[in-house]
Design a protein that fits this description.
The chain has 96 residues and is of the alpha+beta class. The chain has two helices and six strands, in the order E-E-H-E-E-E-E-H. It is globular, with a radius of gyration of 12 Å.
Amino acid sequence: MPRHFKKGVKREHHFLNGLEKKLEEIAAIPGVKKVIPGRIYASDSRGFEIKVTRETKTGLKLVAKSDGSVQEVFLVVDRKDRKEVWREIERKMGTG
């Protein structure tokens, strides 16, 4: 695994509060090859939530919300595993 990855999660940039452990749980789901946190945006969100929003060319895109911020998260997942990974994330994160 490249040097910025630990437990399947890229750690080169910042995470929203409470997100790091949740991303490690997602990285442990069979079929997830990499978890890559993206940009953080200001928002009026309250509470904590992680949702799968869509498929991408290389896997899935998630959006994590935490008190006043939103962060994009990208997963590298083979096409054949995407539906099962999506379902498992919804089950683990309580968004299904």
